[in-house]
Recover the amino acids of this structure.
């Protein structure tokens, strides 16, 4: 369909066009409160068109692309709507990239694509079996996605790839009186998880649950706090928001004028890796025909660069870093793919999974934070945060002594990233972020 | 369309089948700073089939190509058969419904040129930018949609509706050196074009507040008597209590069921809470839910005692209770799950002044930047706060984060004013990957006798 869209656009538009077509099929099974409950299938397709006409840019999208004519009847109305959008649009010196060779990258895994409903159910059941315990209820979901993406522009660039994605998540609930405990985790990848990966997921949940059964009083004061890989979200979110070229362009990024400055601890490096094999977010080309490449954002504490899509780059007089991401509706926005914190070595977790990644022994009295409540609320990009804990443990004399409730942690992410006490040896993926546990010094901990 | 759907329904071999089809026209205009970010018109369409075989689980098939309707009815049936469920899923009875309902469009947005919509939101954006040169960034968005909705099920229900929605939202970012503050405006209505005219004043006000917050001190962390304004009280009751009253959380979890036993005391006798999907003109209002059950006003807490919960047909049958019309799906891409509609704290007596008269030192927490509940703990970020000193509202403070334990906090609500209002905001509720679902919250001013206020946590 996009060839026809671009062909018509070439005739009616004076400044070029680009288009994305995507078709997604999803199969999902859900085990709810310990039993198999539902199975679902999704078939979705759509196209997004962007045009530049008389110096102005407009976009339009539609899901009405099916049917025997392959969406041919929708081509003219979509171009009309994109032109109407451009008529109101701002002037923008948007240049569509020319054809370029794309890096080769495996994004489609036959085993994942061919997995039957029973295969997915079997993964769910094996995880359930490892998680069931007295007095607890378990929810498990397993989802497989296959997608075809096609992106092209009027300058002759074309990207096309098939991809697979697998998500397996589980949550164990334990309610005792008014004490509610939920411990969850997820596997995300482009291929089916190995048996070991399913076991590691269960181990990660079980270890956190075992330590959580005993409740202890929270500590109080400015303390060393270990943030586990999932627990790091509150500290990473301000940084990733501030490293977006869009925030920089708007003048709201605290890192906007800090390229080349030593802003973080020397152990802090952050890289965006769209070419990491086996990851669901990996892709050979972005959604605007820009070939994917690795982008070093922070190297050894020094800010290196920001991420850009075509429009943000055009406005900032910069180059797109290949981070254009677009859906069927709306225009592209810059977004990260796989973010890697630290050295980025992918060490397999194996069976030696331990909370805190070896950092516990350095802590006399402190906290280990696995999940916080309210991350993303408030004025995130400024760096200040204050969150009650959802799942956190007290550390005394180098050991976890139990779960703490009714405590809150607060601080400023930029200040804390200068006070890194150590990085753990437990780096892992949490969604599309690869990070180890991190020990930060002098975090405000309040009990209530 | 209805004929096509009923014919497809007849082809199903499942014991229960339902088909939902939606066609949505939407437009969106967004300004960022002085620049138009985008102005777009989109068309979205698709359907969802749910099927249930005796001793099978739910089979759900969603699709964007209507040519695939019959095939997807078959697919949903296969999926249901492939999932063995014991004991079987049962559905509570709901009488067959037939309706052809057009909600009040109040100026059909589909007839308004995109350029008019641009002018409207540009004026709101301009009102924020004009406040001060300290306003370094704004985001102002207009969004509307009209959704045509068809629903049929094998129990004989046939529905056709036209559902409008319009939202305006604004963010004003004020900055001085390293200090950044923001103000949020949000208006959301299940109506049309006429209902969103002349709304600049609200945008101006949040920008003025963002600038004022630059000079405001952080609230000193600690435990205070806290008065919630209507907006924050509404968000609080939705997040901190509403989600626990959704029966899918308890129906197959005996421990959760014990925790949420009907008759349990949740608060002092002043506390009344409910969810009303039939309240006229609100964003969470619809004549029927996405299983064809009529919506209703469901009391949840009466005089401090738990008296009800929110149900789908499945959870109602499992718990031997009546469906409440709370099975909702965000779009054809999803199956319905138990959701809130318009959730409220009922009126008490008196005014704000009566709540603060005997407060020596307290916090008046206003507006909501966000809220989240995890288990029995919650965290809410107020848009701003004012200290209460010796019975009077005093200076502006910022970074007011309320955190606490749900059960303790509900029990500490000791005074509720009589100034109830619905907060007709945009945004929406998230659950199970379905976000944002249009909901409304409403409340009067509410006093919590003691609550932890974060912010400047003394180290």
């Amino acid at each position: 369909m996009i060839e026809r869209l671009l062909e018509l656009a070439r005739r009616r538009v004076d400044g070029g066009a680009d288009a994305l077509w995507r078709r997604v099929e999803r199969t999902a099974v859900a085990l709810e409160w310990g039993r198999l409950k539902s199975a679902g299938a999704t078939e979705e397709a759509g196209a997004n068109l962007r045009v530049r006409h008389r110096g102005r840019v407009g976009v339009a999208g539609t899901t009405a692309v099916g049917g025997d004519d392959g969406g041919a009847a929708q081509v003219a109305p979509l171009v009309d709507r994109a032109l109407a959008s451009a008529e109101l649009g701002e002037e923008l010196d948007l240049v569509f990239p020319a054809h370029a060779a794309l890096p080769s990258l495996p994004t489609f895994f036959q085993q994942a694509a061919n997995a039957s409903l029973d295969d997915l159910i079997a993964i769910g059941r094996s995880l359930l079996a490892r998680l069931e315990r007295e007095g607890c209820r378990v929810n498990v979901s397993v989802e497989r996605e296959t997608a075809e993406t096609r992106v092209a522009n009027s300058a002759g660039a074309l990207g096309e790839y098939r991809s697979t994605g697998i998500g397996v998540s589980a949550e164990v609930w334990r309610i005792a009186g008014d004490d509610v405990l939920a411990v969850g985790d997820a596997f995300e990848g482009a291929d089916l998880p190995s048996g070991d990966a399913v076991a590691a997921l269960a181990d990660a949940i079980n270890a956190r649950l075992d330590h959580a059964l005993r409740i202890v009083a929270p500590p109080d004061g400015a303390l060393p706090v270990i943030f586990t890989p999932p627990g790091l979200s509150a500290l990473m979110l301000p940084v990733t928001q501030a490293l977006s070229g869009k925030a920089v362009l708007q003048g709201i990024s605290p890192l906007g004028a800090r390229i080349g400055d030593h802003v973080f601890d020397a152990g802090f490096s952050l890289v965006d890796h769209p070419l990491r094999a086996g990851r669901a977010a990996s892709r050979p080309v972005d959604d605007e025909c820009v070939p994917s490449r690795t982008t070093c954002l922070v190297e050894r504490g020094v800010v290196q660069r920001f991420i850009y899509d075509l429009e943000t780059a055009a406005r900032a007089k910069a180059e797109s870093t290949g981070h254009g991401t677009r859906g069927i509706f709306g225009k592209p926005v810059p977004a990260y793919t796989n973010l890697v914190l630290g050295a980025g070595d992918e060490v397999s977790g194996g069976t030696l999974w331990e909370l805190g990644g070896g950092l516990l022994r350095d802590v006399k009295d402190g906290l280990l934070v696995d999940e916080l409540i309210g991350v993303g609320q408030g004025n995130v990009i400024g760096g200040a945060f204050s969150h009650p804990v959802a799942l956190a443990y007290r550390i005394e004399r180098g050991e976890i002594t139990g779960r703490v409730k009714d405590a809150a942690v607060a601080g400023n992410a930029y200040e804390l990233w200068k006070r890194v006490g150590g990085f753990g040896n437990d780096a892992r993926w949490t969604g599309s972020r690869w990070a180890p546990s991190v020990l930060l010094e002098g975090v405000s901990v309040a009990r209530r | 369309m209805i004929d096509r759907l009923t014919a497809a329904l007849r082809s199903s071999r499942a014991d229960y089948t339902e088909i939902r089809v939606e066609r949505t026209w939407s437009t969106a205009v967004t300004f960022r700073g002085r620049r138009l970010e985008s102005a777009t018109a989109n068309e979205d369409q698709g359907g969802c089939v749910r099927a249930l075989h005796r001793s099978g689980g739910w089979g759900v098939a969603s699709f964007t190509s209507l040519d695939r309707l019959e095939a997807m009815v078959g697919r949903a049936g296969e999926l249901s058969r492939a999932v063995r469920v014991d004991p079987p899923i049962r559905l509570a009875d709901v009488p067959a419904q037939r309706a052809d309902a057009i909600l009040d469009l109040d100026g059909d947005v589909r007839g308004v040129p995109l350029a008019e919509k641009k002018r409207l939101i540009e004026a709101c954006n301009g009102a924020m930018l004009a406040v001060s040169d300290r306003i370094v960034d704004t985001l102002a968005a207009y969004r509307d949609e009209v959704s045509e909705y068809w629903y049929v099920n094998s129990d004989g229900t046939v529905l056709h509706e036209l559902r409008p929605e319009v939202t305006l939202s604004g963010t004003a970012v004020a900055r001085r050196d390293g200090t950044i503050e923001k103000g949020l405006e949000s208006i959301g209505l299940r109506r049309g074009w006429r209902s969103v005219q002349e709304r600049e004043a609200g945008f101006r006000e949040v920008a003025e507040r963002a600038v004022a917050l630059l000079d405001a001190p952080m609230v000193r962390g600690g435990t205070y008597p806290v008065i919630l304004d209507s907006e924050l009280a509404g968000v609080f009751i939705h997040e901190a209590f509403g989600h626990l009253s959704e029966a899918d959380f308890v129906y197959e979890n005996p421990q959760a069921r014990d925790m949420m036993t009907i008759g349990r005391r949740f608060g002092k006798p002043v506390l009344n809470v409910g969810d009303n999907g039939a309240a006229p003109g609100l964003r969470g209002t619809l004549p029927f839910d996405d299983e064809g059950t009529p919506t209703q006003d469901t009391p949840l807490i009466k005089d401090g005692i738990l008296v009800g919960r929110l149900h789908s047909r499945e959870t109602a049958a499992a718990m031997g209770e009546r469906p409440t019309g709370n099975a909702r799906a965000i779009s054809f891409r999803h199956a319905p799950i138990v959701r809130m509609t318009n959730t409220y704290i009922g009126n008490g007596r008196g005014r704000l002044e009566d709540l603060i008269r005997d407060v020596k030192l307290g916090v008046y927490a206003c507006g909501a930047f966000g809220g989240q509940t995890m288990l029995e703990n919650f965290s809410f970020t107020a848009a701003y706060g004012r200290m209460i000193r010796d019975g009077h509202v005093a200076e502006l403070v910022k970074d007011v984060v309320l955190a606490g334990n749900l059960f303790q906090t509900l029990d500490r609500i000791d005074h509720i004013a009589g100034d109830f209002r619905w907060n007709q905001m945009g945004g929406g509720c998230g659950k199970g990957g379905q976000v944002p679902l249009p909901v409304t919250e409403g409340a009067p001013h509410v006093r919590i006798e003691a609550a932890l206020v974060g912010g400047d946590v003394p180290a």
Observations:
- Chain B touches chain A through 87 residues (CB under 8 Å).
- Chain B has a mean pLDDT of 94.
- Chain B has two domains: 2-213, 222-453.
- The two ends of chain B are 64 Å apart (CA to CA).
